[in-house]
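Deliverable D2.4 — example input (structure tokens):
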């Protein structure tokens, strides 16, 4: 068991004061509807002989200086939310924690454990501070071997995973001396103006929160590229001739999760019901006119794919996912434009709330695909690229899967959270194990590649 010890905590503020005309930053309507929680991320760096000049103290100074410079351009990140309408940008700063991990990074990477990984973060993912306190928190974790893990938490009220990507990449560019390499776009509130109230919420998220239970288990599954190719072939049909990586993996996880839940309730005979999977989609390039890739905010839409519990064949589930994505893309292009965009968003959330509370729905699953995190494997603060990038889920909500790309190939890594009973069945599903490996070493594919 590794021991985690906080060495010091401080506040990092922008290197230059925020101008008075930027003191009040409006949230977009989508930001208002976002849950009060943090978007987590941890980047892992192995120690090597070239790092000898980068002592922990020097690394911290290097990181803090470049962070302070980056906050000048990302000034809302150093502010505080006011009544779910705006961010007061008075340079309150971000929390910065330095911690010592008594153990080897290689030991942690040999079989990553969700509970241990969460200790590398500076705050609990579901903390209410995300709506009232620091919008960004950082924790530097120094291992006895010289390895480093950088844990970052960004308030979901401020932005989505893509927004966090943009910030991390800009921070790394600042560390290397390219401060103007990547600039944020803060125009989301002009496209989706906020409502004049403090109670805006996302009913779909509320439904998920209702499903919280103390008996959740989170486990990691890796789908290597060679296996995904075979999975895509199996999932192909006349409706979807070439399933994407994400479609094939998501459909398999969905199918196996429903099978596990059905086995847990075999004694309860009832008419066939629907299984629903809600998936997030980046709307930046789907709205008309499109938003820039560097737009900051919760620029995420959701679509629901549904299937009868008696018709959960892999090909059919992929077809439902493709249909849902197509409908979501058309929705963004046709309805989220002009002055009616905000009204349409509110109506869509109400429709979602009515839908997921229907009596004929057997179970509700959530899947987030974060393939854009692939770019973070290029993030270099001055001592090389990360060996692993991970987004650890909170583990408080069951029936949730989070997908990210692997480092070495076009594989996919999935963190899946289910009830204890469902997970016991899920992780032994032979169809799942035909394509996925349960929590393999992060270092294994790198070691194999080096040996070739």
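Example output (designed residues):
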């Amino acid at each position: 068991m590794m021991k985690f010890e906080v060495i010091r905590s401080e506040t990092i503020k922008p290197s230059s004061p925020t101008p008075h005309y930027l003191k009040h930053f409006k949230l977009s309507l989508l930001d208002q509807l976002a849950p009060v929680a943090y978007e987590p991320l941890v980047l892992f760096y192995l120690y090597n002989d070239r790092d000898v000049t980068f002592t922990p103290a020097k690394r911290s100074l290097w990181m803090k200086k470049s962070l302070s410079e980056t906050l000048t351009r990302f000034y809302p990140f150093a502010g505080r939310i006011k009544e779910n309408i705006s961010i007061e940008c008075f340079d309150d700063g971000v929390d910065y924690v330095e911690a010592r991990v008594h153990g080897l990074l290689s030991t942690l990477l040999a079989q990553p454990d969700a509970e241990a990984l969460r200790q590398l973060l500076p705050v609990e993912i579901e903390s209410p501070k995300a709506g009232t306190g620091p919008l960004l928190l950082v924790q530097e974790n120094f291992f006895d071997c010289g390895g480093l893990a950088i844990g970052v938490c960004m308030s979901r009220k401020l932005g989505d995973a893509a927004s966090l990507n943009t910030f991390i990449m800009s921070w790394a560019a600042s560390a290397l001396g390219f401060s103007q390499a990547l600039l944020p776009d803060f125009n989301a509130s002009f496209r989706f103006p906020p409502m004049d109230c403090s109670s805006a919420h996302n009913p779909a998220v509320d439904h998920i929160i209702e499903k919280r239970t103390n008996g959740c288990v989170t486990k990691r599954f890796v789908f290597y590229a060679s296996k995904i190719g075979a999975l895509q072939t199996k999932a192909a049909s006349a409706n979807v001739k070439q399933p994407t990586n994400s479609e094939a993996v998501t459909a398999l996880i969905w199918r196996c999760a429903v099978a596990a839940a059905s086995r847990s309730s075999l004694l309860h005979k009832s008419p066939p019901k629907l299984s629903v999977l809600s998936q997030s989609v980046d709307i930046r390039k789907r709205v008309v006119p499109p938003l820039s890739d560097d737009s900051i905010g919760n620029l995420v839409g959701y679509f629901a794919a549904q299937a009868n519990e008696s018709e959960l064949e892999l090909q059919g589930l992929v077809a439902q996912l493709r249909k849902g994505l197509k409908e979501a893309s058309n929705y963004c292009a046709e309805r989220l434009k002009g002055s009616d965009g905000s009204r349409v968003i509110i109506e869509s959330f109400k429709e979602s709330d009515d839908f997921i509370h229907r009596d004929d729905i057997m179970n509700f699953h959530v899947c987030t695909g974060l393939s854009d995190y692939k770019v973070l494997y290029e993030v270099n603060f001055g001592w090389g690229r990360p060996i692993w990038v991970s987004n650890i889920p909170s583990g408080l909500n069951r029936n949730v899967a989070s997908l990210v790309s692997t480092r070495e190939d076009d594989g996919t890594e999935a963190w899946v959270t289910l009830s204890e009973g469902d997970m016991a069945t899920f992780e032994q599903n032979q169809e799942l194990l035909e394509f996925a490996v349960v929590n393999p070493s992060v270092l294994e594919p790198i070691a194999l590649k080096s040996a070739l």
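The CA atoms of residues 44 and 388 lie 5 Å apart.
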